[in-house]
Amino acid sequence: MFRYRQVLAVPGMAPLLGVSLLARAAITADVTALTMYVVLGLRMNYAAAGGVSAAMATGMALGGPLLGRLIDGRGARGVLVGTVVLQAVFWLSVPVLPYAVLLGAAFAAGLGMVPVPLVTRQAIAAMTTAAQRRTAFALESVQGELSYMTGPPIVILLAAKTSPNLVAWGLGAAIVAGGAGLALLDPPLRAEHEADAAQAVRPRRREWLGPRMVALLLMAFGATMLLGGTDLAIVATLKEAGQVSWAAGVVAVYGIASITGGLVYGTFRRPLPTWLLLGLLGLATVPAGLADGWQWLCVAGAGAGLLTAPTLSAIADGVSRLAPVGVRGEATGLQSSALSAGFALGTPVVGAAIDASLPGGGFAAAGLAGVATALTGYLLSRRAPARPRPPRRVSAAPCTSGAAPGRPG
């Protein structure tokens, strides 16, 4: 636990993680809140709800790199304030929008979602030393698991017990509060020794978006494709066994195991290769297809869950190390987009596997997708040196075109 005490003792780290947890729990539940509103508030079918959810998810996937690039150029505070205002307007207006307008508004809201994970990951990279960074990113991945375990269930419970309109307003208020708190904290996105990055030209994409970075983004996509597909396979398996009421319990076991694995991984002195963690996660997922009841799914979930947070932590750590300081926001945005795209594609791909075989086939499809992307990531990562080319320096002559500003905020 010494490593965690050391990270939390970093000035500003504890408030950063606390505010970020509030905002991420709300953001994790945004699609769930829209689903509940369309089904319970507008009294439309789940296909209609899926359309709104897909619109927001697509917007979030596309918005990550754009917001990251804005953060690189203008700093975090201005971007946070702008997105907070957009979210406030959207969630206040949700209960009065007709369905057709809600579709477009959800896409716009996803495009301008408060970039909490982007800012948090950049701040962690800036505020920690190289020796602390893996432990800090392990805490960040645990934070993501806690968000997933608390946000959506609370929204579902409140929507069922109260009004979906009130839930939409409450969720919007939580997103706005978290984003505003992060803007007030205004954490540093560059370390002190990176302050002279203002004198560096923004590197071209081909200088940093090489095979190793592509490998990490591909593995981020594969990891969340696996996780999204696993959720669906759990529900399908329990429905087949007549035990669907146990789905929340099984998911909770996965989450607790993931938190445990993340905390243990954060104490390691040396990192494990990302491709190895993802490959092991995929292999550990496949046997869950043999489970015929919630008890065995819990056992399988405990094994696979132990590798989930470490895998996501290794991906975030790798992206932060490979990205030059002048494009760290854009690189982190690409990471968020890859994660979102994986979740979006994992459900239909695994659903097709379940329809074509048995519920257990969903676990096989999800696990093999993880193994395949891990293998591809390993092969790609061997094609380039570990470190990106450093950015070129600007001459004494004034030139502002494409230059990255000083420390954001």
UniProtKB/TrEMBL annotation:
Protein's UniProt keywords contain Transmembrane: yes
InterPro entries assigned to the protein according to its UniProt record, in alphabetical order: MFS (IPR011701), MFS_trans_sf (IPR036259)
Transmembrane feature ranges: 49-68, 99-120, 166-185, 214-238, 244-265, 272-288, 360-380
Keyword Phosphoprotein carried by entry: no
Keywords in alphabetical order: Membrane, Signal, Transmembrane, Transmembrane helix
Coiled-coil regions listed: none
Signal peptide range in chain numbering: 1-25
Pfam families linked: MFS_1
Region (Disordered): 384-409
Protein name: MFS transporter
Protein species of origin: Actinomadura gamaensis
